[in-house]
């Protein structure tokens, strides 16, 4: 049990005694340590329901509650109950955490299956920094949910059946450079796509040819199908290289094309069940009429008031759409995988699309806990959407290369002894960690400014700062003669800095489950920064290796060990590794 749960349980039984029946008595960490470590407003909520005096009720509960050595309770303000945890209790919980391979983190997700749809770039188009947010956020959420015991399926729903293939097929047949395709397929496919795209803009005849190629592909033309297959395969290989560098993996790559065969039947079923109807030759899903206009994704406000905003699932020409594929995908994930929850880590502009999909799936009887985990944009230092100098979208590979190059330079300046193979590896860990942390430490919905200097700063809210804190702690242990085993060490928490470090360390298990309430890894990122800062204050105030007494030294070493474990484990859940030296 976490400390919070222990306090909650004690409070719960006190309330039950006082009011004569079991009641909800939530406890939260207090925002301000002056008011104690934890806080509950249960007395206020309950007094309101029962029309009694909240302070009197709180006082009665405080007189009844048996907190043992956990904490002391006192009343505050209109009826808050504040808990101040004793150092001996922190010491006990920290020792338990050291002995626990799960570092005190409960398994809150057992028996629930979540499909996480993230990354999902489009084939033969570059994976740009917009996709980086989905990839990094999705990977971290998958790691956190997995550690909490959820059964997680990571699915890369790549865009491998879009209209871009008209351009690519035409380009493949006219301007493809075979040698380039061999040496750098992703770059060559991109060049082909871009050139044809430019040509088609100038010359309507080229555009028509491209459309013709696309129709042939959709009609099952063997030559075009074969080229398409090659393109997809080459693109996947290229993508895999990036995922390897990012240390991101998937259980499945069921892209859009996987669902092609299911689409005609799906549209028929929607028509049969009255979930969709024809409108101007197209098949559309309309409002259920059950929601008020402002909550209904199938209604939209225009100058003349509210009007229909249907989702087209089959065009008048017989073609299927993004929405059709997404409905088929929902069905597959629920029927085949038995998903309890489906999370879509996709940018905010697709919000309406997902609201429509969720609503239509629900009416269809394909129900799961759906979440669109939206995010904002990445801005350049000029606060405009991040672009290269030539105005193109910035490519993810280039970002990674530059991050590693800059990290290598910083490391060379700081620690010239780190060279060769180890130096390169550390630069990779630090550079990629910096990019990931810059993403994950922001609230996902804010647009954030991409700043190399800020994300690589050793003294700042950065991955390198956390990695350096970890390295610093490990170096303490290297100075020690012989191994140190923290198991069974008595923790003596005397200085405020020691108490505070333990207070934060044990909070790890309370924090992790709350991250999934709103899918916000930035809560973990910020917690780790706070923990590292607490470590540095502790390290300044409390000598470790030079401690006067061996019992004090061992207690402090155990705190160091615990801190480094939580730091590296927490960073691991953000998908960030720790070097041993830097
Ligand atoms: N390929 C899409 C894009 O780049 C994202 C797909 C997201 N997933 C989904 N099931 N719609 O915009």
CATH homologous superfamily assignment of the largest domain: Isoleucyl-tRNA Synthetase, Domain 1
| Main sheet specs | 4 strands, antiparallel
Estimated share of beta-strand residues: 5-15%
Domain module tally: 4
Which CATH architecture of the largest domain would you pick? Orthogonal Bundle
Structural class from helices and strands? alpha/beta
**C-alpha Rg, in Å?**
28 Å
Q: What is the level 1 CATH name of the largest domain?
A: Mainly Alpha
N- to C-terminal distance:
36 Å
How many helices in DSSP terms? 21
Tell me the CATH topology of the largest domain: Isoleucyl-tRNA Synthetase, Domain 1
Order of strands across the main sheet:
1-2-4-3
- Helical proportion? 40-55%
**Which shape, going by the Cα principal axes?**
globular
Summed over residues and divided by their number, the pLDDT gives a mean of 94
Note poorly predicted spans.
Answer: none
Q: Tally the beta strands.
A: 15
Catalytic activity: tRNA(Arg) + L-arginine + ATP = L-arginyl-tRNA(Arg) + AMP + diphosphate
Keywords: Aminoacyl-tRNA synthetase, ATP-binding, Cytoplasm, Ligase, Nucleotide-binding, Protein biosynthesis
Subcellular location: Cytoplasm
Main location: cytoplasm
